Amino acid sequence: MTLRPYFTAFGLQWKIGLRYRIAVVAGLVAQMWFGAVTLMAYASVYHAAPDVQAPLSLRQAMTYTWIQQSLFTLLPLGCLPAIGDAAKTGAIVYDLLRPVDMWNWWLSASLARLLGNAVPRAVLLACVAGPLAILVGLGAWSLAPPADLTAAVLSLLSITLGALLSATIVMWWNILTARTLSPLGSYAVGTPLAVLLSGMLLPLPLYPDWIRPFLLAQPFAGITDIPIRIYLGTPIPGGVATGLGLQLFWLTTLTLLGRLWMRQTVNRLEVQGA
Amino acid sequence: MTHSRTLSALGLYRRMAGASIVAQLRYPGTFAIQAIGNFITTLLGFFGIWSLFRRFGSIAGWDIGTVAVLYGLVNVAFAVAETLGRGFEVFGGEYVRTGSFDRLLLRPRSTLILLLGHELRLRPIGRFLQGAFVLIAGLWLAPHVQWSAVLVLPLAIAGGAAMFLGVLIGQAALCFITVEGLEVVNVLTYGGVEAGQYPLTMFGRWLRRFITFVLPLAAVCYYPALFSLNHPDPLGVPTWIGALSPIAGFAFLGVMVLIWHRAVAGYVSSGS
């Protein structure tokens, strides 16, 4: 078994992500706008209720929001665009003919697409929201540094698992697309789920207390929420090990079930077109 | 034949809209999934605000009824604009880059009518219903609802829809320069919805000024809501302003239409 084809698939999608430099700048402006609106809203909510003991301090909620905004394109919002096109035109049969493991082939492409989009945006926004914001005197609104050195290292490990987990969820959307022969369904289902359950809409620790254990245990929390909690040093029930354990659990479960679903889908796939 | 067979602009728009609706209902499954997805996405948006309210007891001192009215107003207005303005949203990619705008110019009708007829999109019905639902719930919960709200809220929705349609037309006019559509303009549409659902007092001064004087978001949302709920403005603006301010949305649309005509007059085709 050789790994070369998977690296090629990865390299190709990674380059596609890096091609659109104007889109990166446009995305940065949009993320800063949404970040600013959200931050001001949180600031006035926190200041109006100084006695409430929230699970996140205001500074932590702000940092959470910045990291979440910078990693927006890492979320599994829908299928890989190339697979959506291939499903519509029928070109998906070429993928079936390749002498490679199709799960790994699509997974490496999906992961590269996510990282190619997210890494430049995240680095750029981290510079603007971190050092640059402090330089212009907006230190109170800036991205806080990690809690300590251990938190920094562990959150880096955790975000790596998060990226893999996100690519695995994208694989589920890819299979859904292959099954329905249209990418629209995967976006209609994927975007709302990812935006809500990852903590993009509101940091997961701020939801009502009765629902928080469920929100932590579902797979989307493993993409960005758990890495951010480790970065901030906010307590996770059972410690960092629970966080990393949940990520590994979902990664394994979704991979095994997904491979099963993919085999079943490929066996009965009917492709339209010439 | 005695009478002319030429359609009036309104008759033409009605036919194009009818054809678009029939086309979308051809795929009832896709339509249903998209509308439900739209409904759920926006509903979850309000769940986030509600959770903040539950945890902190108020939204920066505002009761949940007022915030729900603001949220409902801005979402209903945006849903109407989204339904009508699809042609402007895809204008760069589908008309300017491909050169098919040249064909529209040959037709003896206003380009605005032809682009409005590009598609009457049904998908935003999810956002519309959800916004209307939250708006009514907010009126139910708010303590001092005025009877005049029956007049002011529809005016506010119309003004808000006009303003968002103006943004879409302005975005399309920008495509004459940039060719491809720029996602940055989403800051004014989706970002406007995001900012409009919170009370104005929660924002810093630069943002308050921007969404009052540049984009008249506060005029179509915040002030009419305060008027309808008889809620004094913490920043000291008299409440009656809210009964008239939605007109600013129509004025904004008017300015964008003027810019559009200027831009069309200077249009140079991208080729064959």
UniProtKB/TrEMBL annotation, chain B:
Keywords noted in UniProt: Membrane, Transmembrane, Transmembrane helix
Coiled-coil ranges per UniProt: none
InterPro entries per the UniProt record, alphabetical: ABC-2_transporter-like
Keyword ATP-binding attached: no
Pfam family, one: ABC2_membrane_6
Keyword hit for Glycosyltransferase: no
Bilayer-crossing regions: 31-53, 59-81, 148-169, 206-225, 237-260
Superkingdom of this protein's organism: Bacteria
PANTHER family xrefs: INTEGRAL MEMBRANE TRANSPORT PROTEIN, SLR0610 PROTEIN-RELATED
Full protein name: ABC transporter permease
